[in-house]
Design brief:
alpha/beta; Alkaline Phosphatase, subunit A; disordered N terminus; binds calcium ion; metal-binding; metal ion binding; iduronate-2-sulfatase activity; Alkaline_phosphatase_core_sf; signal
Length: about 550
């Protein structure tokens, strides 16, 4: 009897052990997520649009993963775009339509992307700019801060982002003068140094190189100390955002002779006067004229510097991916690379972001997953997708539930079927670009007095001429929103009073992407039926333009 009991006990223990083994086998470790943001990068990579950009890392990632050729941001400015994609909700839903509103103040209980992963068993860690500036949601989104003691501080002596003492001196003098004049207001972009810098220094003397070292050191620590713990790393690069600073070796990748200036350098024919700004963000830099044309030699230099900073970022991403590969961790890591919005480099006569047009709203977006169907790797997708779709996509890829508040659509299916019939339209928006700062807030007194008084007067005259009796200074600066919808063949921009959405639009723009991909001619007046059709489609909103399941 005793023997029999022992036998039964043994049987029970071995069954339990087997269940344990089986469970261990079934509960495979969740995939890590490497979520990489690049600030202000339009699809300026050689894998996109035949650019001359030297971006081997991102090109390779595109060839081995899925590149999205038609990905769009929700608003072409840092904080609204990032707050939207990180919360998975659209700019007006979270009430963030300019750079100075903190999404958490407006939405105390919203569950962000990293927060959701944290609540689903992930270690979430942030290095660099993923959210905008200080609106970083430290308590809720991230489970730990990166350990800065793991690496040497190679940023010592960097002032205003510059290595060169002459540039530092200009920056300090301009900043001090503006603070003296305008006090705290000066910190919002008044008093800056040169727009670019090229110095023969190591990668980590500038912020993005330093953050790369910091990311790798912290990844190493996490992988070593908790190999079974899945991580979500938000890794944010500030290049190629102004100022365009990068080590000389990245400038040397380009022969200036190969760099061409924008061809379409005038405003769209019959376009909205309120739709374009006077390149404020660039003009506050010390080596850029406050008004008038940007001379060709300077434009050339600016394009060179944008390319150099893009290559600099590409090289940093390469270091992180190589590290994960060497550690054997890449095989269980999903990589998503995105930019928060596009950028005009002289197109439409504008430098900067902050418009509703294709050049400012279209972004690079690449996903690489170790679990993708091998046959479909490297097949770019032309499906219309939005940055707000990244949150649900990552949930689906990691097999965790999607919170109910999300306003995007997972595009996981496109990784294996890139030609699948997808969204009918995607949506962006921007409040009156002509009369606001590049941060999308109304122009401050300092900006008006110091730089933009005459420019604004000129712009205002243009809007008055176009809008006639509809012109109302307060309405146009504060409450007009340009709602932009992109379909496969068209872009329509509907300019409305956002506080009276039922009222008829104040102005409509229509661009035909089959015949005019650079959006040089507004054809809304010639195509009233098409405008009516597209307006009806616009009224259905994002929910009415989702893929049919
Ligand atoms: Ca940005």
């Amino acid at each position: 009897m005793k023997l029999r009991l022992n036998y039964l006990l043994l049987l029970m223990i071995s069954s339990l052990l087997m269940i344990g083994c089986t469970n261990k086998h079934i509960t495979k470790k969740k995939p890590n997520i490497l979520f990489i943001s690049i600030d202000d990068l339009r699809p300026e990579m050689s894998s996109y649009d035949n650019s001359i950009a030297v971006t081997p890392t991102l090109d390779k990632l595109s060839k081995q993963g899925t590149q999205f050729n038609r990905a769009y941001c929700q608003q072409a400015i840092c904080s609204p775009s990032r707050a939207s994609l990180m919360t998975g909700a659209r700019p007006e839903t979270i009430n963030v339509i300019e750079n100075y509103t903190y999404f958490r103040d407006e939405n105390p209980d919203i569950i962000t992307l990293p927060q959701h992963f944290k609540e689903n068993g992930y270690t979430t860690i942030n290095v660099g700019k993923v959210y905008h500036g200080k609106y970083n949601d430290p308590e809720k989104s991230w489970s730990m801060k990166p350990d800065k003691k793991l690496i040497k501080n190679t940023l010592k002596g960097l002032i205003g982002g510059y290595v060169n003492p002459k540039n530092q001196k200009i920056f300090k003098a301009n900043k001090a003068a503006m603070i003296k004049k305008y006090g705290a207001e000066a910190k919002y972009g008044l008093g800056l140094g040169p727009a670019f810098e090229c110095e023969d220094v190591a990668d980590n003397r500038y912020l993005d190189g330093y953050n790369t070292d910091l990311a790798i050191a912290n990844l190493k620590k996490m992988i070593t100390e908790s190999p079974d713990q899945p991580f979500f790393m938000g890794l944010g690069y500030i290049s190629p955002h102004l100022n365009f600073v990068a080590p000389k070796k990245y400038w040397d990748l380009y022969d200036p002779e190969d760099i061409k200036l924008a061809e379409n350098n005038t405003a769209p024919e019959n376009g909205a006067s309120m739709g374009l700004h006077a390149s404020f963000e660039l003009r506050v830099r010390s080596n850029i004229p406050n008004k008038g044309d940007i001379p060709d030699t300077l434009a050339h230099k600016l394009k060179h510097s944008y390319l150099a900073t893009s290559s600099y970022v590409d090289a940093q991403i390469g270091k992180v991916l190589s590290f994960l590969k060497e550690e054997g961790v890449l095989d269980n890591t999903i990589v998503m690379v995105w930019s928060d919005h596009g950028f005009h480099l002289g197109e439409m006569g504008v430098w900067g972001k902050a418009t509703n047009y294709e050049i400012a709203t279209r972004v690079p977006l690449i996903v690489w997953s170790p679990f993708q169907n091998e046959n479909n790797r490297g097949q770019a997708s032309d499906a219309l997708v939005e940055l707000v779709d990244m949150y649900p996509t990552l949930c689906e890829l990691a097999d965790i539930p999607q919170p109910n508040h999300l306003e995007g659509q997972s595009f996981k299916a496109l990784l294996d079927q890139p030609k699948l019939k997808w969204k009918e339209a995607v949506f962006s928006q921007f409040p009156t670009p002509a009369l606001r700062e590049w941060a999308a807030n109304p122009l401050s007194k300092g900006m008006r007095e110091t730089y933009f008084g005459p420019l604004i007067e000129e712009v205002e005259e243009g809007i008055k001429d176009q809008m006639k009796e509809e012109w109302d200074r307060a309405l146009f600066e504060n409450d007009i929103m340009g709602y932009s919808m992109r379909t496969k063949d068209y872009r329509i921009i509907i300019w409305k009073d956002r506080k009276n959405k039922d009222k008829a639009p104040l102005f409509v723009e229509l661009y035909d992407h089959i015949n005019d991909p650079k959006e040089t001619k507004n054809i809304a007046e010639q195509k009233p039926e098409l405008v009516a059709e597209l307006t009806a489609q616009f009224e259905k909103g994002w929910k009415g333009n989702l893929p049919v399941q």
